[in-house]
Amino acid sequence: MLTRWRAKLVHMLSVICRRKTDREIDEELRFHLDMAFQENVHSGLPDAEARQNARERFGDLSRITESGRDVRRGRGGDVFVQDLRYAVRVVSRQPGLFAMVTLTMMLGIGANTAIFSVVHSVLLKPLPYDKPEQLDLIWSDFKKTGASKAPAAAAELKAIRDNCRLFQDVAGIWVGGGTFTGDGEPEQVKVASVTTNFLTVLGIRPALGRLFIDGDDAGEGNNIILSYGIWKRRFGGDPGIIGREVRFANGARTVLGILPADFALSFPPEANVPSDIQAWIPFWNGVYSDRATYYIRMLGRMNSGVTVEQAQSDADRLARLLRDDFSEYAAENLSLQVIQLHRDLVSDIRPALMALFIGAGLVLLICCFNVSNLLLTRAAGRRREIALRVALGASRMRIARQLMSESLLICGAGGLLGFGLGLAGLEGLLGIRPASLARVKTVDLDLPVLAFVIAISVGSGLLSGLTPLLETRKVDLVESLKSGARNASGLVRQRMRAVLIVFEVALGTVLLVGAGLMVRTLLELHRANPGFNAANVVTFEMNPRGNSRIDAVARYEEAFAAIPGVEAVGGISHLPLGDYPNWYSPYLPEGLGADSSNTLLADYRAVTPGFFRSVGARLIAGRDFERTDAAATRDVVIVDDMLAAQTWPGESAVGKKLNVELYEGEEGGFGKHSAEVVGVVGHIKMHSLLRSLRPEIYIPYPQSPREHLSFLIRTKVDPGSLATAIRTKVNKIDKTQAIANLRPLSDYLEESMSATNFTAVLAGVFALLALLLATLGLYGVVSYSANQRTQEIGVRVALGATRSDISRLVLREGLVLGALGLALGLAGSVALSAFLQSFLFGIKAVDASTYISISLLIPLATLLACWRPAYRASAANPVAALRQ
pTM for this structure? Predict the structure, then answer.
């Protein structure tokens, strides 16, 4: 090791003292030459003969000098700098080629830079918490109901906290709504109810004040922690707010602390825990006796050194303990699932991002093939130069280093420009990113992205220079030095160029098929029936208050209905495609045993009588809810056609009885009731346009008066024009009532399609880039081949070939390569069909219309690429061709 370091130090010093080293080497060689000369003189030779003999004994002085410098200075760095300088001179003599190759690499490296920035931020960068690798989500799984990744009951959470061994601590969260009143306009916000240890488990440090501690959840638990944003916006960033009371949710709460400005929660979509939470309150400690209501999302921090597999083993032990101690959990066959937080967070978006990353890699590979072809063409034109250098004593390795230096120089310039293009492209990606990419908020120039750009630039340079390098090893020294020596073989016989073009077209075909399938999926999503009509519907959220929440909702609906242009008004506890925590539970059809209820799950929704009309749902059978369907009368429900078909196949669901879960208020909680089915509606896609998760049960709002309600107003006019009128009506009824998320219902549809739209747009961009590059590459190679065959074409014309014959000759070669690439690309797309199917909706991965379209597009692009070279070849003057 010391020897290596000494050699490196000597090399560094020799580079710094280069002129001194060169002078010493020259002096040493002159000394030895003079000594040999003196020996010859002493032996009796004349001076001229003695000097000649000394030179002959020494050999080529330039080679000896260069070898001496290699030994004294260190060969690598000096030769590399020399090769780089020569490469700069060579490429500067061909600015057009240099510009084309650089721009080609810029496109490929730019696309990869933008995508890798997203992949790094979402998939690779750790979450902004203390030791995030120790954080796990703990989900409840109910084997009999088939409910996986379900929330936990409060008693379940307490038992796990008290008995876990491999977790430092386990915390819980549930997100609802609340309203700030008092100073300023009322403001509705998202409120997280958490265990007192939740923020501590995340490892968060407050920007001001303190976090919750044990005891803050005692009694009424009138404590609150504010987000940095609402502290700045509503309370003016006043540091004196710590310890003061603020008016919140019809009461007063003491502010304990302010969270950091950059803090945001990162939970997977199925957890229904949004990132933008403005207020935090502790669970009341009395809730931990509840074993029947599942709503808490559990977060655990593993002990240091514990793996997820070991934590899962501990969770299995805890699940057995819960089943043994509580009959409810035994009846549900409760188990626990431990998933690392970051892994669960990116599970939905990971496949799409990896597919796009692979697509960007294919674009870069096409760029490398394109550049290889251009450099291969250039290397063919330099055969005489290379042969001359070899004849003058240059080694094959030195020639290879020189060619590779030129390739690295060009790709390095492309990488530099591509880095800038990638950052600019990333700014564009941020504008269309879906909610699952919310972590990517700004463009960060960090070291991993920079290292990635350098790595792919160097890798692209090596790959692009490999093909020309292999071709130069086949140079015939004698033939290349002959004047007028030419390569008159056809394109198909030029195997290296042909192979590169076939692979370019094949990779472009794969990307075009993938993009075509994503575009078809996007079209299918736009045509898909979500179960409701979002046109001309405005929606907003409220937390109705007062002595009678039911009466308050009725007054609001009456006021909204009086607004000019309004056609229908309704409310629902959980808006379709919204982010409010889901409500689902088992249900029991009449006549089935209690055990059967464990196999039937449905989403529950509390709605007002005008909901189905305002949302545009289709009533299939029975009737809608009426104002008389109150808790004091008989319990009734409306089910969707999915539940009706699953529960009573071939029968009418109207009039049937179900044992369902109703919300009996904050004091009563949730309880089981027998209800009659009075209607059947079409299934509404509540969670995603891509799939239907569970059937739905709708309950009259008076029978389950939830604290959160989303109003929907269908109007004849522009929904955005109703904002002022809606706020005026609310303020007239209750000045302390706040509304939130006032926006068209169509926005939720667009957001639901945003991930597919994001993937389709990027796939389309990559496919168009691939098609453009493959077309340009094919054009360049066919054009070069036609130019190389000038003499052959002249002979053919002289022997009677027509212009159409020459055109067909050139076109045939390009079309053969295009057809081979198309066939290979279609075969590759079919082989990838199983992987592609997971991204599609409404179509199959082997979609006939997509494959037919691509099969027509590739030949058209091939004809476009070959037409100009074929025309030039057919228009060539045979006399001039033969003379040349």
Answer: 0.79
Joined together, the tokens standing for residue 118 give 């997203």
Neighbours of 6 (CB within 10 A): 10
Calpha distance 232→580 (Å, rounded): 25
Reported as a single tens digit per residue, the pLDDT across 845-874 is 888 999 999 999 999 999 988 888 888 877
* H/E stretch holding 801: none
Q: What pLDDT score does 80 carry?
A: 65
The reply to whether 259 and 241 lie within a common domain is yes
Structure tokens at 713: 């107003």
- Report the distance separating Cα 658 and Cα 590, nearest Å: 6
Q: Report residue 361 as tokens.
A: 């890699």
Contact 322, 159 (CB under 8 A): yes
- pLDDT-derived band at 792 (thresholds 50, 70, 90) equals confident
3-state secondary structure of 21: helix
Decide if 139 is inside a domain.
Answer: no
The three-class DSSP label of residue 249 is coil
**Residue burial 17-48, b: 16+ Cβ < 10 Å; e: rest:** eeeebbeebeeeeeeebeebbeebeeeebeee
On whether both 63 and 80 belong to a single domain, the answer is: no
Q: Could you tell me if 353 and 449 are in contact, meaning their C-beta atoms sit under 8 angstroms apart?
A: no
Q: Which amino acid is at 562?
A: A
Q: If you write DSSP's letter for every residue of 411-428 in order, what string do you get?
A: HHHHHHHHHHHHHHHHHH
Tokens of 811: 């076109």
For residues 674 and 694, membership in a common domain is answered with yes
End-to-end CA distance of the chain: 62
Tokens representing 582 are 């889901």
Is-contact 778 501, C-beta < 8 A? yes
- More reliable by pLDDT, 38 or 824: 824
Q: Which are the contacts of 587, defined by CB distance < 8 A and separation ≥ 6?
A: 597, 600, 601, 602, 658, 659, 660, 661, 697
Same-domain status, 38 and 60: yes
